[in-house]
Structures
1.
Amino acid sequence: MITKITSDSGNEYTINTEELTCDCPNWRYRCHNFGKSDDRRLCKHLIAYFNDHPELKPISLIQKDKLLDAATEINSRPKQLRVMFDAFVSEINSALKQFSDVVDKFEVCDEYRRLCSKISDLHYVVSLKPDKNFDSVIQYFTNILTYNLTRTLEDKTYVFNIYGLAELTVHIVSPKSWVLSLIHYTGDKTELLNLRNRANQLGYTLTSSELIVNSTNRPKDIIFESEQQFYEFLQLPYKQPWLRTNE
Ligand SMILES: [Zn+2]
């Protein structure tokens, strides 16, 4: 069935519920790369339409849904090709840049920053300008980009579902722990373990946001300006994010 739908932004798009096509930019740019039994072929308009008309959803996708549900229950999300996330990252980056009155710094972390070829979900580290909160950005993400806010934790961690295709976690960190947070959320686990061991050798405890002086149990009175500076402090050669892996 071919039908016209009006999106939240007021644009009219034409979807085809058998061929699983839409003439929105997202479908033309990204979704068309996937076959008809792959739910990544669905843009948000097709997803919304099938939510309202589940009887029209192709059987191949319904079976896939069940498999995916089972897979996510077992453990983490299935990894997807990095290229799948490029469109999301540029969308998120340009959104965060627009909120320069609120957002001081931001960086995509984890697997995407380490340039892994396959990625399970997106993590961002964000620090805010003094006395600002993240509310206006959350509203933009949910109302304009139509991301689904699924979890929040203590005004510090926000988890969004992006069109049912990917998960985005935003970690709000304090400006003075920016560098250590960046290192923490970039990973990988093995690299963090190495850095923690090295810090211990030098008499410190490295946490996700602080370097504690073991003899006083207090944070070290130094604000790292860059990741290079932190590696230097630990007397280690600097590692680019894509080298921080043992995979
Ligand atoms: Zn569409």
2.
Amino acid sequence: MNYEGMFEVAQHIIQEKRQSRQFICPGDTVCVLLTKSGNFYAGTNCKSMQMGRIFNAHAELQAVQNMLSAGENALSAVMLLDLRTGQPFLPCVQCIGYLMSLNPENYACQIVLGKDTVTMGDISQSMYSAYSQNAQSMQNQPLMMQNVR
Ligand SMILES: [Zn+2]
């Protein structure tokens, strides 16, 4: 599949942000969704202050809100780019989980990483197994300490 259109949408937003002279923080992102019906929806991350702490709503959230408002939820592809460098990277595990929860078919949605792609289903399986292995080794630690005593 040709994901050129997604890059064009993202580049347009990156240009707008740069021309607005708005300060772009490290870690600011743009997300572009391509739905099964061939429409693009985009969003950027949004920082706010809540209870004295900085809350960063990931770019995927705004893109999803735009998509849901238009009555769509079936994804063909997702792309996440750094606003400063334009480099693609993987959405976080929470965003992948959220995108997959919108429609059961979204496990087959492609994450576009430059010329390479990976399905959300494949990446979430490896992410969750890495997470559960970590959680398990952390659970084992206090037991090992008890054994030493
Ligand atoms: Zn995220």
